[in-house]
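Whiteboard transcription, Tuesday session. T.W. wrote the structure tokens on the left side:
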């Protein structure tokens, strides 16, 4: 894991191997499982943000960090369409791809995710 020195405090690190850093509800499955991480954790987190923006809730909720990690790594999020009707056709699939549990099934980059979202950029709130 890359360690980042805290500004103004030489030798002090923001993270240590084995520590969770960030908001747990936005952790990717590989992050929750302690596996190797790459830039696709950000694709996953952006998918969660979009899910939350459209439904008013995060896809996984639990009373403990361990329960949340279990849900993220093994559970299925409620489908967007079940929580929020009247979504433009295909948008649910775009967000679901960003939130794929298998990192290799997720968008390979934020640019790829943005390309998949472009057809929805002119959709207004009244259309959702």
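and on the right, the sequence the group agreed on:
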């Amino acid at each position: 894991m890359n360690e980042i020195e805290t500004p103004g405090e030489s030798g002090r690190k923001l993270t240590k191997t084995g520590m969770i850093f960030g908001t747990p509800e936005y952790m990717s499955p590989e992050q929750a499982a302690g596996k190797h991480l790459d830039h696709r954790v950000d694709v996953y987190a952006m998918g969660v943000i979009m899910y939350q923006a459209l439904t008013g809730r995060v896809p996984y909720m639990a009373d403990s960090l361990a329960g949340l990690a279990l849900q993220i790594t093994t559970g299925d999020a409620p489908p967007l369409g079940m929580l929020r009707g009247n979504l433009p056709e295909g948008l649910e699939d775009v967000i679901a791809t960003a939130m794929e549990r298998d990192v290799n099934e997720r968008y390979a980059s934020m640019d790829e995710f943005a390309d998949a979202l472009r057809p929805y950029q002119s959709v207004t709130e009244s259309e959702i």
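Someone added at the bottom: The longest helix spans residues 40-55.
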